[in-house]
Amino acid sequence: MMEKKHKKIVQNKKLTKKSNSIFNHSVNTKIDCSVKNNIYFMSEKEKIEEIEKHFFQIMKVLGLDMSDDSLRKTPRRVAKMFIEEIFSGLNPKNKPSFSIFENKYKYNQMLIEKNITVYSTCEHHFLPIVGKAHVGYISNGKVVGLSKINRIVNFYAKRPQVQERLTIQIVQSLQRLLKTQDVACVIKAKHLCVNSRGIRDIDSSTITMELIGSFKRNSEIRKEFFHHIGIS
């Protein structure tokens, strides 16, 4: 039994070591995203089972009746939601694949995808961040399918986040993907950790932006981008 357990630990360590290079390439951008490299150490099924056990205990500590029909399956629901949905961006396997095309049309103006839904989770209180992202780039010879921009935003949003990091990760991912220095991202979002607790300010929202290349250096390009996304 001990030999079997030891063999599994060794296999998991090898898998973790092998996966580190995949992890670093697929998940991390240059900015630290607070994710450890042992992401493959447990299977998704094992993670769900582990979270389910711990969340059951949290609910018990809160004094909830865990024999109640309405609550009995909640720990399992929460565990599956964490792994398969709202934190699915922690798993490099869920990173969307991209088809990059030559810019045959020689389109050399900015391309903007605006009003992309952002639904993320604040890493400080594990409460929702809800808003819109506006992403623009100027081609350096390569273009990407429009829906892929939405998928990049969604991938990095699906993890415990801070809005500043999310904004930078989106820009760095597109910069690397399209090999262009001209990328911009603006996110405007509400944070339920501000809206529903603490100060409980339901009207406030947060704006973050990351501008590189021409979007940062050229005031006319920056002004045009802000005009198109509705920022004066």
Structure summary:
With 232 residues, the chain is an alpha+beta fold. Helix content is 44%, strand content 20%.
Characterization of the model:
This protein is an alpha+beta fold and 232 residues long. It folds into two domains: 2-94, GTP cyclohydrolase I, N-terminal domain (GTP Cyclohydrolase I, Chain A, domain 1, Orthogonal Bundle), CATH 1.10.286; 100-229, 2-Layer Sandwich (GTP Cyclohydrolase I, domain 2). The chain has eight helices and seven strands. The chain has helices at residues 2-26, 44-61, 74-86, 146-157, 163-178, 192-195, 214-217, 219-229, and strands spanning 100-102, 110-122, 128-138, 142-144, 160-161, 183-191, 206-211. Strands 5-2-3-6-7 form a five-stranded mixed β-sheet, sandwiched between helices. A hairpin with a 5-residue loop joins strand 2 and strand 3. Helix 2 packs across helix 3. The longest helix has 25 residues, at 2-26. The radius of gyration is 21 Å and the shape is globular. Residues 12-27 have low confidence and may be disordered.
Which CATH architecture of the largest domain? 2-Layer Sandwich
For the largest beta-sheet, the strand count, sense and barrel status come to:
5 strands, mixed
Low-confidence stretches: 12-27
Number of strands: 7
* DSSP helical segment count: 8
Molecular shape:
globular
